[in-house]
Amino acid sequence: MKFRGKIIDIACLNHFSRVVTTIAKLTKTCVLRLTPDNLFFVLSGKVANGGVSMWCELSQGNFFDEYQMEGVSSEDNEICLELSPENLSRALKTVQNAKSVKVKLTKKHCPCVTVSAELPTLSSVSRVVTHDVPVEVIPRRLWHELKEPSVPDFHVSIYLPPLKTMKNVVDRMKNLSNFLANLNGEMNLKIETDLVSVTTHFKDLGNPPWGGGSEGGADPEGMAEARVDIRRLQQFLMGQQVTPTKAMCNIVHQRILHLVVLHDDASLQYFIPAVA
Amino acid sequence: MQCVVTGGNVKVLAKAIHSLSRIGDELYVEPQQDGLALRSVNSSRSAYACFLFAPLFFSRYSLPNGHDFRCKMAIKSVQSVFRSLATLEKTVEKCHIELDEQKNRLTFTLHCKHGLLKTHNLSYQDSESLQAVFDKEGCGNVFRAQPRLLVDTVVHFPPSLEEVSVSVSDNRMWFRNHVDEEERSKAMVTELCLASDEFDHFAVHAHNSVTFCLKELRGLLVFAESTGLPISMYFDEPGSPVVLSVTDSVLEGNFVLATLSHDDHSFQKNNTKGAPTAPPPPLDDFMNDDMDPYLIAMDTSMAPGTPEASSALTVCSPPQTPAANHSTRLHCEEEEEEEEETVDSDRPPNKKFRSLFFGSVFPSQMSTQPLPDQDVLASDSEEDDS
């Protein structure tokens, strides 16, 4: 197994850093999956993390100037590593002004993803900083858990309001929140306690072209609803640092909230299961 | 005692005090012939700092009449006098420090703009001298750099990082975070390499590697960066303290930090192409180390007739390292009040990060006659060597 990538462009380094920081805000550990064309940050839904799952896809060409990898075998030309995105994020943050950054798979005291950077200096010799992020190699037999989640048969698909606005609203709602949306481009965020219920209505959001519902005969006025743990939603919103190109959500009525965020060079999907 | 600090020097004094507060909770004040000494030490005796302000730093400097005076006070109260550095710069014209021995207090009077006077009466406690005797000129490895270099280096390590290992070869210096044996598989390891030409001075005598606490150093870095003074670094073999200092014509600051004695550090040269490095030798279990050489020598010989003199000497067996011949030993002569002594001699070095104590070496076994040792120990004046 070999992996070696190099980033030279400052803007690419910056984007990559931001993506990793976003992931770091969503989860403490995740799997980095490397294929010849892409990098994925994957969190498979497990009871331990509240059933949420995440799938972030990056095209390596958008970030790396050089990218070489050799997977586990020629048929399974992939590498799957479990790591703490927080460590990776910290490593990348300190090298933002580097002349070049290399990311590679190494074996130190344990398998590591090593981020090494050449920092600009006044002297003739560059300053080199290396960060060894310990990783755990995921064996092939567990790879089935890391497949791209299929987009569920949703009842409603709707564009999200500006994420900053949504974050402000959600921040003020501390309890379980209801998430209602319908095909007419309306979305409601609602919380309910014994004493009070508060609903925020968003209008004119627009529905993505495929958002016709699974059967095509769905009632445009009907609202699909998913009740989710607000902390997960908060976490998701906190992690978004830049305005995405597109942000939308799909709802499977009372089952799943599927959030999709698209940037120029990366896409992120976050699944939050509905609670009873 | 009367000291008057004017203009920009007030801010420098304030910064020095803030810097000392990163070391310990108490400020030891001792007006000396050669200037005002402000010192601090941490509770585990693994870090010591001293700022000496020459008489020329002050617009007026006079010593208490005829006798040696020294005291200690809570550093937080002194910090509160110099709380806001930005305001200090803008409004304080001078600072007057006056000793009132009758009432056991030091009065700090800030003369501010518009005739405003802020008076702080801070009470002090008597204390005996806190002086670490160290010989930085005797160190083999000597470096000097602009503060920016060290600040830029330290930024790569998380603020919570306790220990950092510094290693040198003929023309390179490596900084690496030190990771305990148990955490090795989970912790991120960061290493930064500096070339010798980034330093103003780079003299290596032995390719050593020392590990010390980074947190305590940050106080000095802040001070150096704001005053623009280059930082000098002196160290020898592991176990001997590392000394970092800043100097100019009117002040000298020295930060002395203890280092881990058995360094399991196996620093990598940058030309290993990802080859697996040999696993570092297992770190000795600290409790089995001969701890005694690492406890501070409490030499109470200066206090005449103190009955607790012998119990305070906590050093017993001769050290195993060949440090007997080494000139860079650090003695901390402190004669404390009785309760504090017993606490210190009983207290095991149980700090979580493998207590780093000043290496103290008495060539002879524990002697109950401190006086003869007094001749062996370096005298106070050694500290003034610079």
From TrEMBL, chain B:
GO molecular function: double-stranded DNA 3'-5' DNA exonuclease activity
Keywords: DNA damage, Exonuclease, Hydrolase, Nuclease, Nucleus, Phosphoprotein
Catalytic activity: Exonucleolytic cleavage in the 3'- to 5'-direction to yield nucleoside 5'-phosphates
Domain of life: Eukaryota
Polar residues bias: start-end ranges: 308-327, 362-371
SUPFAM superfamilies: DNA clamp
One of the protein's GO biological processes: DNA replication checkpoint signaling
Protein's cellular compartments: Nucleus
Acidic residues: compositionally biased ranges: 333-343
Cellular component, GO, one term: checkpoint clamp complex
Pfam families: Rad9
InterPro entries, alphabetized: DNA_clamp_sf, Rad9, Rad9/Ddc1
Region ranges (Disordered): 303-386
Recorded family membership: Belongs to the rad9 family.
Described function: Component of the 9-1-1 cell-cycle checkpoint response complex that plays a major role in DNA repair. The 9-1-1 complex is recruited to DNA lesion upon damage by the RAD17-replication factor C (RFC) clamp loader complex. Acts then as a sliding clamp platform on DNA for several proteins involved in long-patch base excision repair (LP-BER).
The protein's name in its UniProt record: Cell cycle checkpoint control protein
Organism lineage: Eukaryota, Metazoa, Chordata, Craniata, Vertebrata
Gene name as annotated: rad9a
